[in-house]
Every structure is written in structure tokens, then in C-alpha cells.
Design brief:
Rossmann fold, eight-stranded mixed β-sheet, seven-stranded parallel β-sheet, 15 strands
Length: 728
Amino acid sequence: MKTDIILRNNQIEPYNFLNSDFDKLVLAMCPSSGKTETVIYYINEIIKKNKDLKVLILPHSTNVLLNNFYDRLEQRNVCFTYSTDTSKNTNVHVILPQSTSKIKDKYDVIIIDEAHENYFAKTVQNIIKKTSCKKQILLTGTPSKFIGKDDFKIYFLALNELDKNTIPKLRIDIIESYYNWNGNYNYNHEIKKQFNYEDSDTKKSIEKTFKFITNRSGSKSISKTLIVCNNINQSKSIKSYLDSIGLFSVISNSENDTKSELIQDFKHNKINILIVVNRARLGYDDTDLINLIDMSGTLNPNLIYQMMARVLRGSNDSQKYYIRLTSKKDDLLNSEISTSLALMLTDKKYISTFNGKDFSSKKIIVPNYFYKKNISKSTDKGASSKILKDTDDIISFYRDTLIEVEKNAGIYKFCEVQDVLNFLNPKNKKHTLEMCKISAIKFQTRSEWAKKDTNLYCCAVRKKWLDECCKHMKVLSRTYTLNDCKISASKYKTKSEWAEKDKKLHGYASKKGWITECCKHMKVLSRTHTLNDCKISASKYKTRSEWAEKETNLYYYARKNGYLKECCNHMNILKKKHTLEMCKKSASKYKSRVEWEKKDRKSYIYASKKGWKTECCKHMRALMNKNTLSDCKNDALKCESKIEWSKKYPSTYNYARRNKLMTECCKHMKILKTTHTLSSCKKIALKYKSRNEWHKNNNKSYSYACRNGFLDKCCQHMNQKKTKLCRS
């Protein structure tokens, strides 16, 4: 059902900006801010004032982005006509830039989506000349190409200006890959085309990444995931690995998916894991997407920011992840630096000044400690030059994760975008030294302070107050050695026991890659678990989820070997949330099992497990196979179309369809299949006094007239004051 366009608070100002005088206007609005809705509202309002206005919309050169824009139009009640066919006489045309030859009209306004990618392209510039448009509106989330150009009027809306409750929680992880990308970057800070992606490196990298994901979630199932890679060979290696572990995936590239149909299937949740080759990095809008795995290796902050934006769609209740693979032995910290800069673009101060030029590890503005660790090593005089102003106090947003993945942990860093937004929000600049001291005194360690009061901790770091605020913590700070870790490990018989009883030293050893050396004496203790081991372990916990969280290895061993039921007997009482009576009551509200499963999945699944489904569904006539040809005919006669029948009487409709009775039952509906013509539409239109009345009472003929461009001819007799423009 179509809905009216209602501007949110953050969209009112950009809408007012659109109403100002301009020739070239850049609407630089961040992800989740509603650029498309704002522009649609603007088009709707200007066409209300001038019904003859012509607007051309140019999405980025893929069907996915064209469909995204068109779908938004379809979802809204608008007063104007629109089409993807330039031959149709509509107010708005939505076409791809490569369709230049189809453009024949002149346009008053041209709107270019993802303008940072295609505005300066020859095809778009030729279209602008050909159409002689008076106004140009450029939509982008990364406006660096337009910064410093006087002929563009720019409106900025940064991510940290939005209400945090309107965007999902996003965690960014950096994981070391097996690729050696160092020195293999082009001028645009992308991996060179000639880089050879070894099959073994790809498989080991994706294996490491998926182990990281499953270890983090505690589950072997994978949420909806998009994997971005550079070339077809790399994508095939990824798919080969996923096939080997039993995970279904599909590859979408320019060769096998020219119309982006696979991407559409992925968007509509028909595919759970999609591998793309240089696709879906821009403009792809999918609120159900949970993981984006970036295997492209790009160091371009604009592209990184755009990929982050793909998983910044949805509600505040959602937890999403951007997982980025970095080069093997990334000693120059290129990935961390470029991603930190991408995160800085969430702030208006930086996105309005970053022009995308002079990007390199020697010239990029980075945290002070980066200068000490990396840039100070360079003899280049330009090492201290900056691409942004007044940013000496910017810090890295990343923390190390203490997660051991198999033998070699490599680089594991992460940050939370919500923390970044808190830190960069101008409100945080009001914090004083005294406020930071008062906050710090509550905690015993710097890490505890950073975790529990991130805003004030980050402020102290930025203002260089950290040492002063943490004086009372000095006794706790120390650097551990390999020998310290060995001594600690020697007290315990297993790795899990060590991790449980001395988290600090186990974590430190894991971070430094010393686990194997410290745990040599534990090798003799490695053995296969038994049923008795699982029972003893399970007896300590009240719920399966608690057991899975606290002793993951034994839980999954029990599940794998079918011991769960036996081990969790004492936990059964906690799972009795449904009774037979409750399931019957729930089922009685619905006409079919499908409907019951859809609207009350929990009780449906519980009834299935307990074998109560047949008893609960006695009242569902169709599912008890009691429908007859006579039943189907009687229900069909009450309806004028198959669609109406399927909605009102799904039981008999489905029975008729399964048993090939549709033709016999729908004989009376044949008259509804007539094809409209200009003549028939004119005759029907004469029955009504207004377009609105015609639309309400005979939508099919009205829509046909709209689509074929002869609405005005049919409505000449109507009172013009009461007419409304059509929706097509």
C-alpha cells in the first residue's frame, strides 16, 4: 500500500535548501538520512505548482540502483506520473545514464544519484547538454569531488547529526588476511588489476573470517552476508570454500548477472550469502543485511565509508557488522588509518573539508601515535602535511580484540560506530578536565574506563589529559613479558582453565601470539570429550544458552554427538513455555497452517516438535483434505477474480490450484480478462465526473490509460478543478 510522504525533522532543512536559488546543488546527506525521500517530496511539491514540469532522474549505472529509486516512487503517494520509458509522456523519467539515445525531451530539472561516481563522466555530461536542463541536483554521501569547486552549492548532513536511535548498531572489525597487498595499490588506492589472487590465500582468508564470525556469535549459522571482492577468480575461490563447509552462496558479476537479478533475489531474502565482484558497494539499500565482508583491500576512505553505509540501514535494535580484511603484515597501519579517516567522515567538520586528494600513509591526517609509530620513520618532508585542517587531536577509534582463532591470531581490531558518533559529536567538546577526573576516579583501569564511559575517556585522550586523569591507576599498569605468561600458564592444565582463571595474562599472550609456546606442557592433556564430561559440564548451568556461552567446546561436542537431551534433562523445566491448550488456542485464530506459522511461529514450532499439530489444526478444513470440487466452485462464484478468491478463501483456492481445478472453477471470471483500448477507456471514463472517481471505481482501465499516455484524451469532459494527476 502506498503511503504519503512525511518529512522527518532532519529532512526539513535540506528540503528548504532545495527550494533556494541554484543551478548546481549537491545534496550531501549521510546514510539513513533519507536523501531519496527528500528529493521525491521536493519533486512532488514543484510539480503541484507547475504540472507541465519535466524531471529526469539518473541513478548510478546499474539496474539495482535504478530499481531502488523506482521502488521508492512506487511506495509513495505522489501527484505526478513517472516511468522508466522515455517515450511515455510522464512528468518524471527514471533511466540509466547509458540510455542517452532514448532521451528526446527537454527537462527542467535533472537529478543525479551517486553523483560522486558518474557526474563528471562523459555520458552524464552529454545528457546535461542534450536536455538543456535549468537545474541540476546531485545526490551523494561522499562529496569530496565537489569540495572546493565554486560552481556547486553544497548542503551537508553528517551521520553524527542524526538521532542515534534511528540508525542500527554497527561494529567494524579489522582482520589480517593472507594477501600481501603492500606496494600493490594504484593512484586511486585500489588494488592493482594485475595483482595475483592465489587460491590458497583466498581460501585461508575467508576461512579465518568465517571462524571469527562463528566464534563471535557462538553459532554455526550465518546471518545475511554480502562479500565484496575484486575479481572473478577471487570470488570463485570464496564460493569453493563455502561449498566445502556446506554454506550455499551465489556469485554476482558483470558477466553472469547483467541485469542484477541475483542482487534483487538477495535483497528479497531468496539468497543468504552473496559474493559480488566490484558491485553493491554504492547505493545498495537492504535493511536485512547483517554482515558485509570487505575483501577488496581498498584504502580509499570514500569507498570504505560507502561500504559501511550498506550496513547502516535499519532500526536501532539491529546489530550489524562491517568486517574488513587488511594486508598481511600491515606494518604501515594503512588499513587502520584509512578506516579511521572513513569514520571521521561521519562528522560534518571533516566531510565538508575532505577533498579526497593527496591520500597516502605519509600525508593522511592520523592520530598522534601513528606519527610516532609510522610517519616519523619517513624522510619525506611532506610527512607532516595534512589534508584536513585542525585535526591534530584525532585519535584512532580501534581497540584490540582478545580473540584467539586457531594458531595465528594475526591482527584483530574493532570499534563501535556508536562510540565514534559519541566522540565526534560537538556536544562532547563541552567536557572539562574536572569532569574527566571525576569520571576516571570511578574505575581501576584505563580499559574499564574506556568501556564504561567512552565519551569522557575519548575526550581525555583527545585533550591529552589521560595521564593526569589516570594517576590513581598507575600501579595497575605494566607490560607483561613472555616469561610472565609462561609462569602464569604453568599453573593450569588446560587453555580454557588458564583463560578462565587468569584472563589478563591469557589475553595478553593471545594478543602477542605466545599461546602455543606458553601451553606446550598442556599438549599431553588434549583428549576427546566423553558423554560424562558433557554431563558434568552441563550440570553447572541452568539453561542451554548459559552452557553454550560458558563452555562452548563441550556444548557443541554434545550437540554434534546427540547428547544434548541427556545432558540437559535438569534444564527441561525452563523450556515449558507452551502447553497443548495454549497451542490449540493460538491455532484456533487462523484458517491455515501457513497463516498460523507466519503469525505465531513460536507456538507453531513448539506444536510441531511435540507432535500436536494435527490436533491443533482440526478446524482447518483445507489442511484436513475435506475440500471438494463443489466447495471450490461455491467459493469461486463469490469472487470476481482469482486474486479476490485467493485473498478471501485461501483454503479452497489452494486446493483448486493443487488439483488443477482452476479452469473449471473460474469459467465465470473469463470476462475479466478483456484488454483495454483507447476507445474502451473513453467509454468507461464517460461514466465518471472526475479522475479520482474513475480511479476509485475502475482502477484497471484508469491505470491502463495512465500507462499508455492517453489519460488526458479520456478525461476531457471532466471538471478540471476536481482532477488529480495519475500514478503510473
